[in-house]
Write a structure and sequence with these properties.
With about 110 residues, the protein is mainly alpha-helical. The chain has one domain. The chain has 5 helices and 2 strands; from the N terminus they run ααβαβαα. Strands 1-2 form a two-stranded parallel sheet. The longest helix is centred in the C-terminal third of the chain and has 11 residues.
Length: about 110
C-alpha cells in the first residue's frame, strides 16, 4: 500500500482499531485517524524516475491492501506496470511465487 491509511481503515484491519478509545468512529475519529495515517504516504511526494520500471503486483482477494490503494500507487508512478494475481495477501506469496519472481525480473528489464 502507498500508506498505512488504507490498510487500517479500508482493509480487514479496520476491525482491530479500538474506535471507542479514539472517541467513537462516528464522532470524527475515523477522519482524524485517516489524516494522520495518510500523512505518511508515497502519494504525498513526487514520483522518482525509477518508478517507470516498477511492476506493482496486487492480489485480487487481498483483505489487507484494498485494490484502490494498489491502483492509486500505480497511477501515481508514471510508466509503472500493474499486475493482478489470484489469491489473498499471504496466499499470493505462497501460491504465486513464479509470477512474483517474473514481476521482479521484469522490473529489471530481464
Amino acid at each position: 500500500s502507498h500508506s498505512p491509511g488504507p490498510v487500517w481503515l479500508d482493509g480487514i484491519l479496520t476491525h482491530m482499531v479500538d474506535w471507542d478509545a479514539l472517541g467513537g468512529r462516528s464522532n470524527g475519529a475515523e477522519d482524524r485517524l485517516r489524516r494522520h495515517l495518510t500523512s505518511a504516504s508515497v502519494l504525498a511526494v513526487p514520483p522518482r524516475p525509477h518508478t517507470a520500471t516498477a511492476v506493482i503486483v496486487g492480489a485480487r482477494r487481498d483483505g489487507y491492501i484494498p485494490p484502490a490503494a494498489v491502483k492509486a500507487l500505480h497511477e501515481h508512478w508514471p510508466g509503472s506496470e500493474l499486475r493482478w494475481l489470484p489469491g489473498g495477501h499471504a496466499t499470493m506469496i505462497w501460491r504465486q511465487k513464479d509470477a512474483l519472481v517474473d514481476a521482479i525480473l521484469s522490473s529489471f528489464g530481464t
